[in-house]
Amino acid sequence: MTELFKYEDERESESAARVRALEALLIEKGVIGSDSVDTVLGHFETIAGPFNGARIVARAWVDPAFRQRLIEDTPKAIAELDLPRGMEGAEGEHMAAVANGDGVHNLIICTLCSCYPWPVLGLPPYWYKDPVFRARGVREPRAVLKEFGVPLPDDIQVKVWDSSAQIRWFVVPERPAGTEGMSEAELAALVTPESMMGVALVAPPAQPVAAG
Ligand code: FE
After folding, report:
1. Residues near 14 by Cβ (< 8 Å), separated by ≥ 6?
2. Is position 195 annotated as part of the catalytic site?
3. For this structure, is 114 an active site residue?
4. Which among 17, 48, 69, 195 counts the fewest CB atoms within 10 Å?
5. What is the pLDDT of residues 49-72, one digit of tens each?
């Protein structure tokens, strides 16, 4: 992953210390319980996270009709899958998928703040909220993508999708070559959050998997 939009290490530890102090104060004042923060974190570890997006992408790769439905009505198509409850809430009501391929590469961004499709991707990384990323992502997406390690040929069109409270985008990346014999679960394991944000491609498996 890119070091490009990574904050200084101290910023991380300073934020962590601030969060711990705030949590302790809120517990002391009786605003939250002692397990409230763990409950929220657990939600994003087990219920809402990129593991959901990866399953959706894998299904789209093996089932072109599903892929089509996913693009046309994302929440409705997602509801077909046996995913954890809550896909329709917590920022999930207005999700929309865009697919890479056919000469198009998609990049998601929130120019205003940090809108993100939580149910399928979890919480956004630090750099997604970075004003520099948000500004440059729309102004010079090709240059930004190149710095992320995704140099796109000139004949590939780049589309930038600005998420908001109304629509939260995610990307269906292209299925890599050499994955013909893989199961849906094996395919899902290849899909990274970055690929569903459009700042990475899905890498083919290290060992080609034999068909059949
Ligand atoms: Fe936002």
Report:
1. none
2. no
3. yes
4. 17
5. 999 999 999 999 999 999 999 999
